[in-house]
Amino acid sequence: MRRLVRVGLIVAVVVVAYFGFTFVQVLQASRRHHPPSAEAIIVLGAAQYNGEPSPVLRARLDHAAALYERDLAPVLAVTGGRRPGDSATEASASAGYLISAGVPESALRLETDGENSWQSLAAVARFLEQEGIEEVILVSSPYHALRTERIAEEVGLRGYASPALDSPESGAVELVKMGRETLAVGVGRIIGFRQLVNLDDRVGRVRSEVGSG
Fold it and tell me: Which of the residues 25, 39, 45, 96 could staple to 133 if both were Cys, CB 3.0 to 4.6 A apart?
């Protein structure tokens, strides 16, 4: 019994240390300011309302436009599909916003089917590969920065996170999302981020079945 307790304590300490270290990495990635130049900028999608980007998505797009204006990359890819009931995709809303901000349409690439970050980045990786592009700057909310880099690596991109530091997600909301990202990154590094998406889908289906039962 004592041996089992000792083993249990060691496992608990290792788990706490692992996720504590992961949280520090998530926090550090969320505060990065100066990405290197790359071959493309990728903006991860967020909510849009009838073609108008939400405040979270606008913060990402404004940051991406600023990076483009600094000539850090000649191509700007926007991602995100259509949610149930939406009249537009996240990517099309993003593209319209960027064009109105002065980004030339010729520089834009749209990924319009992704339902999550893994699907979007995997799809972008496939069509950027056709242009010989591998090195990218990843724009999302601060708490999401580290996971975007790890997913990019998994789908064959060399990604450098440059989070939108003006994102309206802050305070307690950001802290909660940092905690969720810590769990997602910690588990994803062990089982793979594609498998993490599959696991999340299965959990969602079980919750839906329980809720309707």
Answer: 39
User: Which residues are 79's β-sheet partners?
Assistant: 111
Amino acid at 121: L
Q: What is the pLDDT of residues 117-154, one digit of tens each?
A: 999 999 999 999 999 999 999 999 999 999 999 999 99
Give the strand pairing for 135-139 and 40-43. parallel
Amino acid symbol at 120: S
| C-alpha to C-alpha distance for 178 and 26, rounded to whole angstroms | 7
* Amino acid identity at 129: E
CA 210 to chain centre: 29
Distances (CA, A) of 141 to 27, 34, 169: 12, 15, 8
Distance CA 80, CA 98 (A): 15
- Helix (H) or strand (E) holding 77, with range, is strand 76-79
Q: How far apart are CA 52 and CA 61, in angstroms?
A: 12
Rg for the chain (alpha carbons), in Å?
A: 19
Three-state SS for 179-194 is HHHHHHHHHHHHHCHH
Cα(96)–Cα(52) distance, integer angstroms: 9
| pTM score of the predicted model | 0.90
Spatial CA neighbour of 194 closest among 145, 128, 150, 162: 150
Q: What domains does the chain contain, in order, with CATH numbers?
A: 33-170 (3.40.50.620)
Q: Give the C-alpha separation, 99 to 107, whole Å.
A: 10
